[in-house]
Design the sequence.
């Protein structure tokens, strides 16, 4: 990238399984107010000039659901645009607004209340087409079951290893005050949890979660004025795979590998095994931690099982936040990863801080079985 | 190709989509609804940053992007600003239930509001042709109230003496 864009402020709600106490507007306002105060800006020229929101009409049960949020993000009299995909895509969009020269300071605000609908699976069921894939009962969880089976066979990942991924997630989540699932579990607990989409067990699935995230992004010149510890976005990449699951190699990482290749090229990362201090993976299901690790080049293709066995997650500082497995709602999964990378690079990650972290990578995905992949490289 | 298509049966698939929802009202709208239910009072939220009244109350005033901070009772009388007479029945997609037509949707500026803070509701009159912009109306509360906007049944036209 020619010019540089930084994240100057981040705020997240506590993630919880049912934030019934607040409307979605209340959740978003909590974090928007926080980041505004961090940088001391209001809305308008030379202040926050534009907002990018991130939400999903079906989870909000409103058409064009960002119209519910515009009051709260200062969109009155200025621009607001919604990204209806994982929040890592909203980061990409906000960076593009700044690099285009249209705006210098952009507010990003995302939310999702998975608890609002009676069933998260009913909502993701509607992501499928009404003729062929809905009638056979596909939703994101069932689609992930297809992928998990294919991936585990190809990469030699075992039920025991997946249980250990969950155990480790909870251990780190206990050190993350905002995480949802913080209760310790044992390998035996996870392996005794019922199958929900064989080989995916109940214990392998991220808990139903509600939450909101806001960030302030700024051009290089403004970022230096607004904060003492800007975190620079040095690489971005994304890639869509085909919608139809049967046309994909579900065990592989076609779209993630492309996204990572693009982000690494931009950031000058040549050896991801050695050059990343912090890695945050949006693991909706335990198997995805290993599959995404392959896609990000933390280990070779087909080596996910061996990577888990050799302690790859600890060695490469993967998901010290607890990961998405500890409970972020859909759409916020990748954005919470970016938020954690910012905290790590600012030295604000508390008991889970990676000492001296200089470079981090965050991954997010949108759609069934990781259809759209987004990779963000950040540096301090 | 186009000729062949005219001969082909084109299949459509009829489906009903529904997901049960629990919409939170939060502390701000929630307080408004509690006042309706328990006290038959209509409470506006005033924002001291710019003096705007918010009806229904929301967490944030869009103009100043600050929180409202003063609760003020308004109504139950008010002045009709705009209205619309609806002649088609829009059925509930799940029950097929319709409302009687025609019905009147009105935008009422309640007594006590400074500036414009419209509350939308249904407007009723013995003769709807007498409903006019600028007419006086009054909130009629339901006997049984449950903390929803239906706790106000409608606004009733106050007919002026001839």
Sequence:
């Amino acid at each position: 990238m020619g010019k540089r864009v930084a994240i100057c402020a981040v705020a997240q709600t506590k993630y919880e399984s049912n934030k019934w106490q607040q409307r979605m507007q209340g959740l978003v306002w909590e974090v928007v107010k926080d980041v505004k105060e961090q940088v001391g800006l209001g809305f308008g020229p030379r202040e926050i000039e534009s907002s990018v929101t991130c939400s999903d009409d079906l989870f909000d049960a409103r058409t064009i659901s960002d119209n519910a949020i515009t009051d709260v993000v200062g969109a009155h009299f200025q621009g607001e645009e919604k990204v209806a995909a994982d929040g890592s895509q909203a980061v990409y969009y906000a960076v593009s607004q700044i690099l285009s020269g249209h705006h210098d300071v952009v507010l990003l605000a995302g939310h999702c209340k998975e608890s609002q609908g009676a069933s998260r699976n009913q909502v993701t069921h509607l992501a499928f087409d009404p003729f062929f894939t809905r009638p056979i009962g596909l939703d994101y969880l069932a689609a992930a079951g297809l992928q998990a089976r294919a991936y585990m066979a190809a990469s030699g990942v075992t039920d025991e290893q997946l249980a250990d991924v969950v155990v480790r997630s909870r251990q780190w989540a206990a050190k993350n005050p905002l995480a949802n699932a913080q209760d310790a579990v044992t390998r035996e607990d996870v392996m005794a949890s019922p199958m929900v989409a064989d080989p995916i067990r109940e214990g392998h699935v991220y808990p139903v979660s509600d939450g909101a995230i806001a960030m302030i992004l700024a051009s290089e010149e403004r970022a230096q004025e607004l904060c003492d510890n800007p975190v620079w976005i040095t690489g971005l990449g994304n890639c869509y795979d085909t919608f139809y699951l049967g046309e994909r190699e579900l065990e592989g990482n076609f779209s993630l590998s492309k996204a990572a290749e693009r982000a690494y090229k931009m950031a000058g990362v040549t050896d991801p095994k050695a050059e990343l201090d912090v890695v945050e993976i949006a693991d909706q299901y335990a198997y995805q931690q290993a599959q995404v690790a392959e896609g990000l080049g933390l280990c070779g293709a087909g080596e996910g099982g061996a990577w888990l066995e050799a302690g790859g997650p600890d060695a490469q500082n993967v998901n010290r936040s607890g990961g998405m497995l500890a409970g972020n709602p859909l759409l916020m999964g990748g954005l919470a990863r970016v938020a954690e990378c910012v905290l790590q690079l600012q030295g604000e990650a508390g008991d889970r801080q990676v000492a001296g972290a200089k470079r981090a990578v965050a991954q997010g995905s949108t759609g069934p079985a990781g259809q759209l992949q987004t990779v963000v490289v950040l540096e301090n | 190709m186009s000729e062949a298509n005219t001969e082909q049966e084109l299949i459509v698939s009829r489906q009903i989509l529904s997901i049960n929802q629990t919409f939170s009202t939060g502390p701000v709208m929630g307080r408004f609804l509690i006042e309706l239910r328990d006290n038959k009072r209509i409470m506006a939220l005033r924002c001291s940053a710019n003096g705007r009244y918010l009806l229904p109350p929301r967490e944030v005033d869009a103009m100043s992007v600050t929180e409202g901070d003063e609760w003020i009772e308004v109504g139950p009388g008010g002045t009709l600003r705009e209205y619309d007479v609806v002649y088609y029945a829009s059925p509930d997609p799940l029950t097929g239930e319709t409302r009687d037509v025609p019905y009147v949707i009105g935008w009422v500026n309640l007594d006590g509001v400074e500036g414009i803070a419209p509350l939308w509701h249904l407007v009723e009159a013995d003769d709807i042709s007498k409903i006019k912009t600028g007419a006086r109306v009054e909130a009629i509360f339901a006997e049984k109230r449950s903390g929803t906007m239906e706790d106000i049944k409608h606004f009733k036209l106050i007919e002026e003496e001839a």
